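Quick note —
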Amino acid sequence: MDILIHGCPDNAYSWEHQIRFLLHAGCRVVAPFTRGYTPIKAKSNSYFDGATLATDIIGLVNGLNQGKPVFLVGQDGGAANSYGVLAAFPDKVSRAMIMAVPHPVEINRTLKRSSRHCIRSFHWFLFQLPWLPERLIRWSKWRFLSCLWRLWSPNFNDEEHVEQVIGPMLQNQGIEDTLSYYRAAIQPKYRDPRYVHIFARLNDKIKVPTRVLCGQQDMRKEMLPRAADLFEASADYQWNCIDNAGHFLHREQPDVVNDEILKWING
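Predicted structure written out below.
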């Protein structure tokens, strides 16, 4: 079974090109809406930290694949989540394809020494503030979040998809839930204390075979070779850059990305 995890702000429809391709190739595909994204409703006291999100994925593996290892694909926030799954639950994943986001440990190392990458990730810091990001996003309606998409993939017009992502987010608690992903990544008070033992394993060295793709126009590609020390030899860590693509490479160059996924699935 293949599990495809979307990023944020995004939703499961982001994988439409991959779902059709993989189904045609004979794969069994699951592309969930992660917690807080319509139509998935999260309780007002829900957590969105890495340990909780990893546990969500393991719930899918156990419930839909009888606990047997799956092929895991993640992009953006789904990529960050996938790294945690690979580290904390290596027996639940056979192989993994990660997109657009380097290993979180390498991101932290890079942010400490690179002002360029701090600027690239300015929204992470903005979203740590109380109430202001929520008001900014709602005041601008779809424009602020749409601007982020254009910054990350400047040569790609995906307006129809972006609108159907942002529209539901502006309803109910959608914005608050989305921002909780970013806040839980940095602020301990947003993390579920029940999963502290899982959180402690999220940055363990990865043993599962893993390949990482990044758009050639995405500056985060610079981190990929530096992340090699975060993987065991058994992971056979590999990375590649996709030409004519930015952050949303799976939508910008779906045919190329689809071929990469299928080749990695087949080993």
